[in-house]
Amino acid sequence: MPTLELPDGRFHYEDAGGDGEAVLALHGVFGRGRSFAGLAERLLPEYRVIAPDLRGHGRTEVRGGFGRAEFVADAARFVEALGLAPAVVYGHSLGGVTAYQLAARRPELVRAVVVEDVGAVTDETAVAQPVLDVRGWPRRFENAAEFFAATPAPEYFLESVVDGELLFDLDTMMLVQEGNRGAWWSDWEAVSCPMLLLRATNSFLLSADLAAEMVRRRPDTEQVVIEGSGHWIHREAPDDCATAVRNFLNR
Predict the structure, then answer these.
(1) Which domains does the chain have, with CATH numbers?
(2) AB hydrolase-1 domain: which residues (predicted)?
(3) Which whole-number Å values give the CA distances from 246 to 6, 84, 126, in the listed order?
(4) pLDDT tens profile 60-109
(5) Which helix (H) or strand (E) holds 21?
């Protein structure tokens, strides 16, 4: 797993390799870069997915805060350090907010954005439970059954388990989630490059009404609805996800 030294620390990342156009993929809260392995495989050989472990997640070790500014700065530095600009940026959930904020705040670095199942509003006014309280959850456990018996965690968490221990710090995850709460309409509307918005019909984070409002406020947005999928579209409906992404990028 390659690493990249940035001002705030060492970032680990996954690189699908090949000669295709690079796609910087940013995961959601509690995830890590390897969560995009299935999507990366499906986008080859035309597209090469590069997926970092974001600050506070996976094997990445950083100093500093966990607010929006830090996540956007990390993404910008990744694009610059790897010479990807202008880049295609794909973001799921937390990573989706970072993706469109990067495009809004550093437009010279981004040529297209894919936002997976997250809105321009991520607080209580649009989301029933914007923060999952993980304080007091076990970090070590003997097996997955023990972990799921003790917590309401989704299966997605297992991607961040190594030798029976969660890779992330639970207090840090609270800070990450709190920092992602807000109404980000100014960033959403400021994006000038093409955007694809993927929405899951069974999403708990992006309602049909909010998605429609996002398209209305920013007309150069293509929306694709993935039927029967939950929030983790790239895991639950990988073929449909890859097809939508490839069709968008090919245009």
Answers:
(1) 3-133+169-250 (3.40.50.1820)
(2) 23-243
(3) 30, 18, 29
(4) 999 999 999 999 999 999 999 999 999 999 999 999 999 999 999 999 99
(5) strand 21-26
User: Distance from first CA to last CA of the chain, Å, rounded?
Assistant: 32
- What is the radius of gyration, based on Cα positions, of the chain? 17
| Inter-CA distances, 105 with 85, 94, 101, 117, 153, Å | 14, 16, 6, 21, 33
**DSSP reduced 3-state for 214:** helix
Shortest CA distance to 35 belongs to which of 160, 211, 192? 160
- CB-based contact 180:97 (threshold 8 Å): yes
pTM above 0.90, yes or no: yes
Q: What is the DSSP letter of 16?
A: -
Q: Tell me the Ramachandran region of residue 147: left when phi exceeds 0, alpha when psi lies from -120 to 50, beta otherwise.
A: alpha
Nearby residues of 63 by Cβ (< 8 Å), 6 or more positions away: 8, 9
